[in-house]
Amino acid sequence: MSRIDALIAELCPEGVEFKLLGSCAAYSDTRVDASDLDGKNFIGVDNLLQNAAGKVDASYLPNTARLTAYEAGDILLGNIRPYLKKIWLANNKGGCSGDVLAIRISDAHRLMPEFLYRVLASDVFFAYNMQHAKGAKMPRGSKEAILKYRIPVPPLEIQREIVKVLDTFTELEAELEAELEARRRQYKYYRDALLAFSDQDIRWAAMAEVGEFFRGRRFTKADYVEDGVPCIHYGDIYTQYGTATEMTVSHVRADMASSLRFAQPGDLIIAGVGETVEDVGKAVAWLGHDEVAIHDDCFAFRHSLNPRFASYYFQSTVFHAEKNKFVARAKVKRLSAESLAKLTIPVPSPGEQARIVAILDKFDALVNDISIGLPAEIAARRRQYAYYRDRLLTFKEAA
């Protein structure tokens, strides 16, 4: 930091010049044939990641003939909500969909792509972009307003030093993420080994033998309120919950109570639909003190097992291998209660179930609990990065 402060004092003591983005960058106006693209160089908005996390290779190819071309050094920005915070600094050349903007620097003598990338990944720009987004159902960022965004343009030496500092934070986070991923693989290995029971002679039963399934009743996002009937939507099972929960993140109107269907404490709540075969069947054990309303694309499994044991089994490779045979593979993947009832589940003694749960709870906390261990350290590093990024990108403006 002292190095950057010294450079600012030396090179721009009266402040930093601010310029309209459109005066030093423009949108790509070249086109590329979709036939020349593959999963590695086609960028749809779905395979950009949030918060400058990069991208993943596309699992699909474009369905239009010609797309906008991008080059290495271009900044690709998601341009439809809820993807306005998705951004990537391209390291190859390819093509992007209409929901992605390719921003290319036109004044390389004054602006570094790596520096502009940090500016456009900031919360300040995101708030500006959200403010100017247009449209009702699926708002889009305003291309005109984006080019009118005022960006700081300090001397290149200062830009390089800021990028260097922020890269250090990013590299440290990447190392922690890699270590966490290794822990998760280890956790998955031991979880699958414990739940396969390959070296034990235990009873395996159809799920219909140890419990029964109840389907939820429909409610929509329009029914959500701050304080009402606790509820679990199938989408929340993917995004909000782990193995078990005692509280919900969502509530629906109290006057709907008579039309809802509820899971009881100890029930396993199972997502009956998903975008992929792997997603369908994700489950969370409901350990709250009272009943909870469930969506009609969820099933409550009322059973005689340890709830956390049943939930862990639903995460195992052996469960997914059997479950996948029963998934209806339409555009939206589905599992029926009849199919779930046919799946088998191990039924060890209550003591053995409790022993396995105790072991897996420790592993689960180490890789998923954001209050301890590596997840907590990664969260702290992200907060630290955001703090220094915002501080480093805040300049006194030259008169």
Quick structural gist:
The chain has helices spanning 2-11, 113-120, 123-132, 143-147, 156-196, 207-210, 234-239, 307-313, 317-323, 337-342, 350-368, 373-392; strands spanning 18-20, 25-27, 31-33, 42-43, 66-70, 75-78, 87-89, 94-96, 100-105, 150-152, 203-206, 211-215, 224-232, 244-245, 250-252, 262-263, 268-271, 273-274, 283-286, 292-294, 298-303, 328-329, 333-334, 344-347. With 399 residues, it is α+β, with helices and mostly antiparallel strands.
What does this molecule look like?
The chain has 399 residues and is of the alpha+beta class. It has three domains: 1-16 and 154-179 and 349-399, no CATH class; 18-152, Adenine-n6-DNA-methyltransferase TaqI, Chain A, domain 2; 203-347, Adenine-n6-DNA-methyltransferase TaqI, Chain A, domain 2, CATH 3.90.220.20. Helices cover 36% and strands 22% of the residues. The chain has helices at 2-11, 113-120, 123-132, 143-147, 156-196, 207-210, 234-239, 307-313, 317-323, 337-342, 350-368, 373-392; strands spanning 18-20, 25-27, 31-33, 42-43, 66-70, 75-78, 87-89, 94-96, 100-105, 150-152, 203-206, 211-215, 224-232, 244-245, 250-252, 262-263, 268-271, 273-274, 283-286, 292-294, 298-303, 328-329, 333-334, 344-347. A five-stranded mixed beta sheet has the order 12-21-17-19-14. Helix 1 (2-11) packs antiparallel against helix 5 (156-196), helix 5 runs antiparallel to helix 11 and helix 5 packs antiparallel against helix 12 (373-392). It is elongated. The chain starts with a helix and ends in a 7-residue tail after the last helix. The model has no long low-confidence stretch (mean pLDDT 92).
